[in-house]
Amino acid sequence: MNSLREIWGNRFVHYMTELQKYMKFVFTGHLAIVLLFTIGAGGYAYSEWLKEVPDNFPSAIIAAILLGAALVFGAPVTLLKPADIVFFLPMEKKIEEYLRRSLRYSLFSQLPVPFIIFIVLMPLLTATNVAGKTQLILTAVLVFLVKWLYVETEYVYRRANEGSGMWKDRLLRFVLAALLIYVMLANLPYFIPVIGLLMAVYYLFWKKKSAAKPFPYEHFITLEQNRMMRFYRFANYFTDVPHLKGSVSRRAWLGFLMRAPKFGQTSPQRYLLQRTLIRTDDTFWLWVRLTALSVIGIVLIPFPIVIYLFIGALAFASSIQLVHALSGGDDFRMDMLFPQSESTRQPAIRKTVSAVQLLQALFVLITGFIVVGLSVSPVIMAVIVLLISEVTIRLSKEKAETA
């Protein structure tokens, strides 16, 4: 029987191969363009805002809340499989060797999120004279230590309680982490050992509790399966994931958009594509999220040029993702039952996505009029959405035809 170290090594190699297999489709050219424009627009707006931020802005409180939230979330990555309930039983006393490696990977895979947030917050903390260079370095060290402790704490809490009551555990740890970050930034060093001691006592309490209970295989296996399913659903926005079955919902409240077909007057392709778009959960909610981000961006971003870049990037993302989602599918589709050639499908996809993006442009236009008022700026926003969407749809169509 292989040692647990070898089992972890083999599974980790397979896991990284699986990640690379799908991530190469995620970070393609169109997503790079969206990220470039989004990060560029956000960075420009942020830098302009920092020039006017007042010294009494509560940057320490905001940093404590954001970093506290980033430090709290992060379930352990165990790479456990359903068969391990039986397979690992003879080695249960040695399972800690396997879990030590899983917790080590969990720590380093989850560190980027709090550190990226911290790096983004550094100019704000400097602009408001909250923290100097030494204080920022000490805060970074503190972020690392808290994240390490919280990865261990979440593991022992889940092991002791089989995952029940996680919201209470995370709420308590969030309060402690936010307080610790705040007293560091507020230059109140005397409170740091007190809060750190509370964190350590909380961890040791659940570690002792977990040691007295058998390892909850079912909980950690379910946790791992759910984590991978979230990744597969995300990857499915960019490429077909064969073993992922998407969920569908009727959405009767959108029935007015799905009129009954009229014999000889309704295109079978458009009829089915409209229902596919509305009733497929992943595709429908993807478009809703991107449209909502466009609306939120108009409300929150104070610079028109940044808004134009932001909504243009999201219009591009919406169009390319919808075209991909509607062009893909199983080996058998309902439109194959209709006496129409395959060549009618691509024009129907183009018309369907164009109609949906027209609706997105309408939301942008209405939001623009509400926020900016009656001016030419909201019209420019809507035109940008329509123009970029149409260009993206046409380019996607040409690429599909040449493929």
Automatic annotation (TrEMBL):
It comes from the Bacteria. InterPro entries: EcsB_ABC (IPR010288). Keywords: Membrane, Transmembrane, Transmembrane helix. Pfam families: EcsB. The keyword Membrane applies. One of its GO terms (cellular component) is membrane. The chain crosses the membrane at residues 25-47, 59-81, 102-124, 130-150, 171-204, 284-301, 361-388. The keyword Chaperone does not apply. This is Protein EcsB. It comes from Sporosarcina luteola.
